[in-house]
Amino acid sequence: MISDEMANVLELCQHYFEVTEGVFNIFILPALEHAGYRRSFETISNGDEFSEASHNPLLPLPKDCLYMDLDSAMSSVLFPANQQMDLGGIVKSWTVQGLSDLLRIERQIQRGLVNAGGDVEVWGGASDREPWVIAIDRPNGSRMHQLDDLLLLLEDGAVATSSTQKRSWRSSRGSMHHLIDPRTMKPGRSSVIQCSVVGEQLVDCEIWAKVMCIIGLEDGMPLFRRHAQRLEALIFTEDGTLHHVKPSANRSKGQWLGLEADFVYV
């Protein structure tokens, strides 16, 4: 038996597992630990090297089956024995979205901004005549000048950024990061090193930002076009290139200053 909140989160996990065709999968905790991520980043000093739990490879997770039997009406869930999950890829944005709804709807606060380490939700504009202005950090190696700001004008909506550079570490097998590809049970090796996604729902933005970092442009763009539904993305690749992906005319939630889209989808 589980709480209503946990049932809601797990129901979302099922939904995003389906729409991302298995790329978003909460049962990647063994892969994180296998790669060496077994303690909080707050406890790590510069120069620390993570040690892997084992050199034995893990089996890829199936993309057509999520090992979870959820009964939302009963607030119950059944997992296979010893199944390990990690909800870090969704709970932060879910919490911010819930807090924003509380402030906006129940407390009737006319305008506000909630920022939780890269997961941002805004409403009402910064004033009656001005949108919120949100700056996005550039990844290392970007071709943009160090002083060039990536500025997003957003009155109502959300933006989430995911990166393979922020939570990364060294190991005896090379560089690792926290975005696990369930198809390999290893850190994703795509060319995308950072992705910011703008949309109406923050959880949508966080999930798709992670998906694009994990599987990259070649596999990610067709998936994004099929299922993203009016989301906009700003994508950096490891060669320093910036790609701007947006839906067709008048369907975007915000405006990026000085950027022209190189991918437009219907």
UniProtKB/TrEMBL annotation:
Cofactor: Mg(2+)
UniProt entry keywords in alphabetical sequence: FAD, Flavoprotein, Lipoprotein, Magnesium, Metal-binding, Transferase
Alphabetized InterPro entries for the sequence: ApbE, ApbE-like_sf
Zinc-finger recorded as keyword: no
The EC number(s) this enzyme carries: 2.7.1.180
Reaction equations catalysed: L-threonyl-[protein] + FAD = FMN-L-threonyl-[protein] + AMP + H(+)
SUPFAM superfamilies documented for this protein: ApbE-like
Gene3D superfamilies from the UniProt entry: ApbE-like domains (3.10.520.10)
Protein name: FAD:protein FMN transferase
Originating species: Paenibacillus aceris
